[in-house]
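PROTEIN DESIGN WORKSHEET
SECTION A - STRUCTURE
LENGTH: 245
TOKENS:
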């Protein structure tokens, strides 16, 4: 399974003690999307409880005991080993443990196949040390027939590189560290880490494509305005596995 497992939880059970219910782990579901297989598995605890488990050695032992019993009953030994590994490394909870390249792959597929470019002339790309350079140029090149102007926020690309991209694509590309510049963009691709200071400048009507696994960022964006269309692989998996949408 490697790094393509999506572990999701029940809500409203934060105070529940670990149970030995054999039906607790559901049969893993598999989805194939943009060329990758992701395994979804539900556990009978809230995200808050699992965060407590990560901090307590005693609770972690009980969790592993419960997991072993479920595994023996369901014959899900490989899945159990994967969840144990995630727990030991502190990477469990409301978790989509997927390499960032899959978030980029999903975002590009959405832009090319589903996004309505008809009213978009200006596009903002929020960069970070983990998302810059060739990764950004890959998006620019893929979408070059569809957009006239791109603002790169926080990019460390050198000016000669930007000039080369402009000549190759015919797109007006500017670079800035001023967050205010994104306020009139209808499309925002966010590859930044955290980015809480940027969110106040996100326009109330736009499509916001998130390349991070930050659940709190998703909640802040969706609370800001009902007219922001929030897109991310994490949200897609949550809707698919939890709600069957």
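SECTION B - SEQUENCE
RESIDUE ASSIGNMENT:
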């Amino acid at each position: 399974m490697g790094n393509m497992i999506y572990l999701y939880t029940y809500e409203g059970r934060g105070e529940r003690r670990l149970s030995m219910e054999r039906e607790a782990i559901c049969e893993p579901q598999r989805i194939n999307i943009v060329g990758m297989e992701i395994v979804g598995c539900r556990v009978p605890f809230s995200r808050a409880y699992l965060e407590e488990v990560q901090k307590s050695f005693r609770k972690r032992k009980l969790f592993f005991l419960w997991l072993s019993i479920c595994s023996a009953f369901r014959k899900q030994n490989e899945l159990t080993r994967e969840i144990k590994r995630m727990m030991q490394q502190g990477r469990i909870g409301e978790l989509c443990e997927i390499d960032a390249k899959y978030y980029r792959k999903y975002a590009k597929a959405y832009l090319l196949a589903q996004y309505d470019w008809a009213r978009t002339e200006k596009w903002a790309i929020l960069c970070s040390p983990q998302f810059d350079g060739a990764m950004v140029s890959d998006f620019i090149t893929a979408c070059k027939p569809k957009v006239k102007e791109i603002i790169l926020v926080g990019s460390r690309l050198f000016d000669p590189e930007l000039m080369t991209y402009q000549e190759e694509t015919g797109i007006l590309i500017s670079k800035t560290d001023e967050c205010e510049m994104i306020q009139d963009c209808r499309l925002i691709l966010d590859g930044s880490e955290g980015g809480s200071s940027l969110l106040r400048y996100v326009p109330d009507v736009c499509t916001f494509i998130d390349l991070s696994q930050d659940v709190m960022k998703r909640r802040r964006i969706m609370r800001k305005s009902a007219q922001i269309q929030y897109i991310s692989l994490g949200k897609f998996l949550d809707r698919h596995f939890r709600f069957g949408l």
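SECTION C - NOTES
The chain has two domains: 5-97, 100-243.
The chain has nine helices and ten strands.
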